[in-house]
Design a protein that fits this description.
The chain is mainly α and about 725 residues long. It has 2 domains: about 400 residues, no CATH class; about 210 residues, no CATH class. Helix 1 runs parallel beside helix 14, helix 2 runs antiparallel to helix 3 and helix 12 runs antiparallel to helix 20. The chain is rod-shaped.
Amino acid sequence: MLPAIHVVCFAMIIVSIKEQGVTFEHFTRAGGAQSYLQQSLVAARALDQAQRGNGNNRTYTFADSETFADDLLHYASQYREENNQDLITRVYVSAKGIFQNYLTWHSQNINIADTPHGELLLESGASIIPDYNGVLDALLEAAQTETAKVSMLQLIFLVLEGCFCTSCVAFALVYLLRTACDQRYQLYETFLSIPVGLTRALASQTTHMLDDDESDDEEEDDDEKAEAGSGGAGSGAGAASGALVSSKRRALFDEDPDEEGAEAGPGAKPGKGGKGKADGGEDSPRKLPTDKSRGRRQPSMDLQAPPQERSWFSKLRFWRSNSVAPAPAASHRELKRNSRIVYGMLTITGTYSVLIILFYSICYAILMEAHDMVAIQSAVASTAERTYGTIFFSQELLSQTNASHVPEHVERLRSVSSGLRDAYLTLRMGASAQRVLGPDSETFEGVTGNGVVDDSPEMTEIFYGDGVCLRLGQHLPCPDPEWRYFQVSRTGVDGMFTQLFEELESLTKAALAAASAGDPLPDLNSPQWDYIYNIGMQDLADGNVRIEQQHRDDITSMYRTIIVLHVILFILLMVVFVFFILLVFMPLLRRMNQEKRRIAEMMSQLPNELDVMKLVSAALVGGGKLGDATAAAADKQLRKSKSMASGLTVAGGGPADKLRASGGQNSLLDSGSFRSGGDGVGDGARAGTGALPAIDVDAAGTKQWKDILNRANSMAASKQLGLSTGRSNVGSGKL
């Protein structure tokens, strides 16, 4: 489930990043289109001035007319591809008209500015830019929305997938695994609730039942030998009866030689009661070896015996203190609940959750800067566009020959240069630029952080790199050191812009002073225009292109990093999932299959009289607590067993269905042991006491185990009656 959820989240993030990239690309191209318009306007005015014979060798001459005509058509075509407004289409048509007729008009002494196509471009072209700013604002808002969407998805998936889903799955898995473990333990505890003595009795009873068919002939031979050895005497008959019974394999367990005399029946001697000559004397199977009869192959029996039964030499062997000795048998068998499956599952889910939270947190922290980087793209586009606009209006001012028009053109130039200053300082300093420019400066929506200077080392090199040529494409190769502006062109974008603002201020002051004094107006031969055109149209223009490309690369690199982090996270989560399958899930399945076989084997060892389904259902449903229907069925089965055992007791001995359950800690029920009834051999025929297996069980399962015990005793009593027909009662038929 978790991998599927992560795949969905991963796909949604990738799709949102792609949508953000598409929206940002549209905004970038729309901002660049403004620069195309300004370049086409600069080329149109330069073509007009070149055909008039203005200019010089430092800027342009009539020989550059063809170049300007090509640039006019090229940039107008680029601008039209990015827009579909009617006025923009008219600009494109006018550019094509000028390109087609500029040579004809020159031959006819017609200036381009005096033609309809020239007037449209030079008078109305610049007015398109303010109207187009609304489109840029809408595209910026769309780009910021998509950027915020990506960041919000990171945060949502951090909480949803990393915390909520993982926690829910972890709790569900832990609950299911704990439930499964509890059922497994309850199944095992169902078998452990059988007392130790009863378990051994069932095993011994199974052994006798299997041996009955194989030893029928041997029992008949033993009967004949017993009758021949007895000689018809009454005492011999008793001995033969004991020998007959002792010829069968008996389960020797929970025997305490110190207690044999105390529990022996009437007429029996401790440790030797019922021993006859016909059975071969010392070959009696009930005789246990003593310390004296121990051979040389048993040197460690003293160390393995309890401390009170060891010899004094064994007690002095302190260097064997680290040897393992059997602990006394516990009266209660308990199943240690030490399964670590739940902890393994918690470790897996915890690792899964930590990875998701860690990676999503890193991605969200990285994307916190994305909103400001997208917003500052408007300052990047405005800087490039206003650089060309400053060059265009400077050329317009220098093209004027009427002093009365100079103040108007100076005002336009100052307005454009002021906007260029605001855009550039915002690009370099971010939101802090307003403190430098003042409250009346232009603010760019969404810019709240620092500028782009420190976004990457490459961006810093563009702004402040010393000795770096920033020219691109058609402006190559870079000029030689003998060029008059070589040093300033190697100071980075910041140095060139600083010098540009000074030249613009000097140009406007000189134009106003000349117009006021009636002196000759500045023209295209002024030194200010030399710097503005050569540095602005080549080095600064290409520097702006580098800034735009690098800024786009920085944003793309940031989102590429996000994608790489998500891919790494996806791989790590798949590795965790594979480890879960290989190290937790598959071993758990194998273990459960083994336990199924083990439980089936344990069930197969239970007697047929036991209702296994009711027992297992009680263990799985209530952990040992039976329902009303189950309890009623168990009581009915118990009463039936008691009636059968009572009938057998009347025929052959004492009551076999009575359990000593006094409730005290020293009662037989609490002793947890089961002792075989007396058979006249070895233990003095304890049948007279009527002792039965003592069962240590809880109140919920007592009826079931009493029923098992009564059935086992009933079967044993039936067998004893069949073997000792006509003999005296030797016990209550216990196993």
